[in-house]
Amino acid sequence: MANSPINGWIEHAKQVAESGPQTNYTVPASRLAKPIAAIVTAADFPIDPHHLTGAAPGTFYVIRNTAGLVPPGAGDGADFSVGASLEFAVQVLGVQHIMVMVSANCGLLNCLLNEDAAGVASIVDGQYLPSWTQLTASAINRVGSANIPAEQRMSICSQELTRISFENLMTYPWILDRVFNGSLALHGWYYDEGRGVVSWFDPAADEFVTD
Questions:
Q1: Which letter, b or e, does each residue of 62-76 get, where b requires 16 or more Cβ atoms within 10 Å of its Cβ?
Q2: Which of 5, 40, 59, 182 is most deeply buried (CB count within 10 A of its CB)?
Q3: pLDDT in tens, the chain (211 residues)
Q4: Using CA atoms, how far apart are residues 194 and 84, in angstroms rounded to an integer?
Q5: CA angle, residues 53, 160, 134, in degrees to nearest 5
Q6: CATH number, domain containing residue 183
Q7: CA pseudo-torsion sign 140, 143, 146, 151
Q8: In a domain, 123, yes or no
Q9: Is residue 1 part of a domain?
Q10: Is 206 left (phi over 0), alpha (psi -120 to 50) or beta?
Q11: Beta carbons within 10 angstroms of residue 169's beta carbon
Q12: How far, CA to CA in Å, does 112 sit from each of 9, 41, 191?
């Protein structure tokens, strides 16, 4: 995994975050890159990951869902669509990186953390959302049980989702094996467009850093 492009991507992401998102761009198909990383992010993530990082279109195999969560690879929380997408990226495309990208403005977390948010009723009484939001339970409980200022609740909860997704990624055997043999690396990014900040998860320190 020498000469990893991750550092260049994060530097570009920091510049984009500081300047604010710009209009998305398109590139002819002849210039599309082969995917070398899979990105799991929310459907409402506010900026295209290729533009955020400065990577050539096609560099990322982008997997979007509600809140950008990775569900467990087996059991009641298993999700065939996410599992199939990850399996295709890892087993077929042979990506070298999986990036979990969360945002300070996640719509689902806004509903879960703010009782007055529009759509809360569907979170409670919907057909699919109640089961899906169970994946966020430990993150919501951590924020709810701690004395955390209101303005920090969303960011802390968003970052906690990264830890949940990292744990769940390791329940997929073909991801676990590659992580341990060094052919696949996991990354967690946090993007706050309001503050113009990009930070990334340092597993060794178990925290998000900006430097």
A1: bbbbbbbbbbbbeee
A2: 40
A3: 555 778 888 888 888 888 865 555 555 555 556 899 999 999 999 889 999 999 988 999 999 999 999 999 987 666 789 999 999 999 999 999 999 999 888 888 888 887 777 777 888 788 888 888 888 888 887 776 667 776 678 888 888 889 999 999 999 999 999 999 999 999 999 998 888 888 999 888 888 888 7
A4: 33
A5: 115
A6: 3.40.1050.10
A7: negative
A8: yes
A9: no
A10: left
A11: 21
A12: 31, 18, 19
Amino acid at 162: T
Please list the helix, strand and coil fractions of the chain in percent, rounded to the nearest 5, in that order.
Answer: 45, 15, 35
Q: Are 201 and 167 in contact, with CB atoms under 8 Å apart? A: no
Residue 200 lies in a domain: yes
pTM, full prediction:
0.83
In the chain, the number of structural domains is 1
Query: Is the separation of the CB atoms in 17 and 210 below 8 Å?
Result: no
Question: Which token pair is 142?
Answer: 């951590």
Domain with 65, as residue range(s), is 6-25+32-209
